Amino acid sequence: MNHCSSRLSRRSFLWTSAGVIAASKLLHAKESETKPAPSQGVLDRRSTVSLAGGNGRRENVCQSLVAIEDQILPVLKTKKCVVIKPNIVNTANQLASTHVDALQGILDFLAPRFKGPVVIAESSAGFTTEGYDHFHYQQAISDHKPLRVDLVDLNEEGKYQTHTILDGDLHAVPVRLAARLLDPEAYVICSAMLKTHNTVVATLSIKNMALGAPLHSARKESARWNDKRLYHGGVRQTHVDIMLTAQRLQPFWGAAVIDGYEGMEGDGPNDGTPVPSRIAIASTDYVAADRVGIEAMGMNAAHVGYLGFCAQCGLGQDDLSKIDIRGAKLTDVTKKYRMHTDTERELKWMGPMTEVPEKLG
After folding, report:
1. Minimal CA–CA distance to 296: which of 202, 210, 190?
2. Which terminus of the chain has fewer CB atoms gathered within 10 Å of its CB, N or C?
């Protein structure tokens, strides 16, 4: 058993009102133990984002990490394992899911710099292992021996910690978040993409982590449940719940990598069409990485509610004037992505709530 799995607790979940209150208290206690509350001046701090372009997907991803290794290595050397969280929103559609070459680029970076165990771990809406097979993730493992790399289906593993979000009626409800993404001994790397979205306008690193963390029932379980569905109670609530979940996960985040070699525009995150942006973005500040990604997609960052909420909560920097970009010039790689056909309905999260929130996605 590797270090990443040795400290994970087994299932313990109470679907009662008392359980909700206890989960909320536990959340705040654990957050205070794990990381000090952000200072009021957190939004004044500068962040660094690397922007690599012009090469292949694998090379771009690796180079984006190399460009910020001075920020990665001091933390990485204190960790016992690495968890790479890909985005497999669709186990059959490659354009919608993390490409094996993006994982190859991350492992290329890690191989000479980290000797501990590495886990590629995902909680797909479908059967995660089918995605691993369809997208040939085993090839990345074979190509990086003797680096120890394992594939883990977080739904089948079934280890979690509880967290509290709001449902579509704005009631507090508990959800189960994958324990590996809350492991203080793990360096968590998010492997995301540039994609439009059918509920929250755009999905990059924060959305990948926040909606990849909730679990659903394992195949062996007779009773079916899916905590991801609780995040889709309405377009206003979804942005808030992404922020609430990001608050819980952020103390454990290492680096975000956004593969934009071939992004998705239109009806993402599943049914869009490709955009040859030919870039990769990396940062130890997930908010800053997403902010640069939104700009590279030619989108209005104010439309992505959860991004602004996360910045306002001190989870990262979303002010471009306070983000130092290493590598390519942002203006040279920006492409105007076509928006989702439901964008007008998605944007009803903005402004005062004078009606029942739309349920999209």
Report:
1. 202
2. N
